[in-house]
Amino acid sequence: MTDREHMRHDMTDDTQAMPQKGHDHTMQAEMAHVGHDMSNGPENHHEHQGHDHHAHMVRDFSSRFLVCLVLTVPILLLSEPVQMLLHLGTKLQFAGSTWALFVLSAFIYVYGGMPFLKGLFEELKTKTPGMMTLIAMAITVAFVYSAAVSLGLQGMDFYWELATLIDIMLLGHWLEMKSVMGAFRARELGATHAL
């Protein structure tokens, strides 16, 4: 199974997971997979490598979330609506603050949004649009429109909304995968003790 297929697996609704060649991705199948026996030696070891991949995905989402969260702080402080809400006036504005917002947001869009953008292409490739398509479309529209405003289009940018949306989506996926991994481990521990 490729990383892209695992990415798609990790981010789909467990009850409606898309079938992959040779690999059943429903929650029931994953829970059944956890109970497999390692006592038969190395031939079953490759099955456990999927768990390592899931742990890697949890770490990846954690890293993406924390990096994006740190970069969201300056985006919030430089955004006019947030400055108005905090009664800061233009104290934090400087020549080029619009471009600082653009650069920080572009990084968050690419780095933090990459799992969702990859998920979009996987969902479209299999003709099964879902949550990843929705998130990817939302962040892409927010980023492209905000970039156009920075380049002179009349309107208001959505950089802080883009950054916080990506942060919230990364946090949600990170927590979801952590909880699924916890359930897998608990099931595996229970299966071990039952023997």
Model description:
This protein has 195 residues and is mainly α. It is built from eight helices and no strands. Helix 1 packs across helix 6 and helix 3 runs antiparallel to helix 5. The chain is elongated and about 65 Å long.
How would the blueprint of this fold be written?
Layout: H1 3-10, H2 27-34, H3 45-78, H4 80-85, H5 97-112, H6 114-125, H7 131-150, H8 159-194
Helix pairs in contact: 1-6, 3-5, 3-8, 5-7, 5-8, 6-7, 7-8
> Based on DSSP secondary structure assignment, what is the total number of beta strands?
0
Q: Separation of termini?
A: 30 Å
Computed over alpha carbons, the radius of gyration is 21 Å
Structural class: mainly alpha
Order of helices and strands: HHHHHHHH
Q: How would you state the average pLDDT, rounded?
A: 78
Report the sheet with the most strands, covering strand number, pairing sense and barrel closure.
none
Residues in helices, as a percent range: over 70%
Could you name the ranges where pLDDT drops below 50 across 5 or more consecutive residues?
A: 6-48
Strand content: under 5%
Q: What is the tally of helical segments?
A: 8
- What is the domain tally? 1
- The best one-word shape is elongated
How do you describe this structure in short?
By secondary structure, the chain is mostly helical. It contains 8 helices and no strands. The longest helix is centred in the C-terminal third of the chain and has 36 residues, at 159-194.
